[in-house]
Amino acid sequence: MKTLRPGPFFDALADRGTRTRVRLSRPLDIAHDGRTAYGVEDIAHLVARAAGWLAGLGVARGDRVAVIKPNHWDYVLLACAAARIGAVPALISGGLPPGTLRLLLERLDATALVTTSDTLAAARAAGSDLTALARRTLTLDAPAPGAVPLDDVRGHRAPAPRHPSDRDPLAIMHTSGTTGVPKLVVHTTDSLVHRIVAAEARRWPLVASRRDDTVAQATSYAHGRGLAWTLSVFWLAPREVVLLDSFEPRTAEPVLRAHRPTVLEATPSAYVRWQPLAAAPDNPFGHVRLYLNTFDAVHPPTVRAFLAATRRRLPLWVQVWGQSETGPLTFRCFTRGSVRALGERHPTTRDLGRPVPGRTRLRVVDPATLRPVPPGRPGLVLARTGALCAGYVGEQERLLAKSADGWFATGDLGVASRSGRLRLLDREVDAVPGGSCVEIEDVLHDRLPDVVEAVVLGRANGVPLPVLVTRDGTLARDTWRRAVADLPPLGDPVLLPLHRLPLTATGKVRRQELRDRLLDGASPYGTGQWT
């Protein structure tokens, strides 16, 4: 199990002769050699050098190291470098607003901040001096006021790898922040490595990568999934790993064509952005045997499009539902047949399947009394898992308020079937009486092929407001009327261009920000108590 710890991980892979090749969509920000291809031994050396930089910066065992930079896989490598010297990496997306970055750094009280001069300049232009919020700041690209340039710490040797105890903090990552300021989630070796990574780093039939696979990932590497995925996938030693830093189709397409994946994991928003690519006759997904998505339920037409894009006879799509605090909670497999029905009001991808066997338990309760409700009745979803995080940085009381008797309130509303399947309704704060915003969004995507993003905002007084992004920025009124004829009452749709939709680093819509902008502060129907 020690070989799965992030600090010595790539050293252990190199020692056992792992021959996986790494392919990158662009050069790493921590490597100034312009390379986009590496072997495992090269990555091990890069992690060791980065650990030396941190040691040269004065980082010691137990110190918190914040990382804020443009999205790329070197978030994960910097996390491994910090863990290698016994420090605690805190990965924070550089795409967050400067005010949010300032607040998270204030909570973190980090010994060191690893960032870029551009990130510091953007925050400074918005009135935030991030260098004042850590004792030392290291810039990876160029000198910046108040920061140590990388050249000043190059060549420092890292101490021998150090391991925290299983229950000490191992890494900190933040939640998506769709309903407000993200929470800083603390995971230990026990919760992250022993519970999450160890379960995924096994050769499960059909759903695990094989030695002849080309495995690709597109995600926000600041989130915990990037670290857990790296440890589990590289342990299984596929032939090739392809890492994409951007969801932009024009960036991703040439990389996916040059290194055609057989296994592909991406956020739902990345899949949506790539859907036009999947429709092309010579698309880059023709070899994929296994698709995976995390972070959110994905819309049915997206699953349908990618399963149709591959030339494999029996491709599989695995949808995993979980949270930063808990890791995976449920999974469900889709085939071409299971998503064949078009435009109907049925659960499809909102049917999240069953809890991970032997690892998680779910319970649906009345939000007011926390007493279990019968199957078929909606309620607040509670989870019980050994992978539960150790806390929230600066908000420990918040975790305590969401936990009782070993159960954790996910903040989601759902319905459990008699057989134990879970159907997702909404986040509690986003709820609508007697219905489901997520269901309406699924149906709109299914019935309106030109819709890129559909968001339904519930409110305490008044009908829900649909917000749509379409491919050409238009929507015919008759087309809209036909699409919503059998749906609950909705307001007139608001059309927005994609660049005006506030998104998290994983491509989720920041609903609270959109609500504030379009609903003039109208109260949601839900309480928000469990966010």
Describe the overall structure.
With 531 residues, the chain is α/β, with parallel strands linked by helices. The protein folds into three domains: 2-22 and 36-193, 3-Layer(aba) Sandwich (Rossmann fold); 246-430, ANL, N-terminal domain (Rossmann fold); 437-518, GMP Synthetase, Chain A, domain 3 (2-Layer Sandwich), CATH 3.30.300. It is built from 14 helices and 25 strands. The strands form four sheets. It has a nine-stranded mixed β-sheet with strand order 2-1-11-10-12-13-14-15-16, sandwiched between helices. An eight-stranded mixed β-sheet has the order 7-6-5-3-4-8-9-19, sandwiched between helices. Strands 17, 18, 20, 21 and 22 form a five-stranded antiparallel β-sheet that branches. The radius of gyration is 23 Å and the shape is globular. The model has no long low-confidence stretch (mean pLDDT 94).
State the gist of this model.
The chain has 14 helices and 25 strands.
List keywords for this structure.
9-stranded mixed β-sheet; Rossmann fold; 25 strands; GMP Synthetase, Chain A, domain 3; alpha/beta; 24% strand; 8-stranded mixed β-sheet; 3 domains; 531 residues
List the helices and strands and how they pair.
Blueprint: H1 9-15, E1 21-24, E2 37-39, H2 40-56, E3 64-69, H3 74-84, E4 88-93, H4 98-108, E5 110-115, H5 117-125, E6 134-139, E7 148-149, E8 169-174, E9 184-188, H6 189-200, E10 214-218, H7 224-235, E11 240-244, H8 249-258, E12 263-266, H9 268-278, E13 290-293, H10 300-309, E14 316-323, E15 327-334, E16 354-355, E17 360-365, E18 378-385, E19 391-392, H11 396-401, E20 403-404, E21 407-416, E22 422-427, H12 437-447, E23 451-457, E24 465-470, H13 477-484, E25 494-495, H14 511-518
Parallel strand pairs: 1-11, 3-4, 3-5, 4-8, 5-6, 6-7, 10-11, 10-12, 12-13, 13-14, 24-25
Antiparallel strand pairs: 1-2, 8-9, 9-19, 14-15, 15-16, 17-18, 18-21, 20-21, 21-22, 23-24
Helix pairs in contact: 1-2, 2-3, 6-7, 9-10
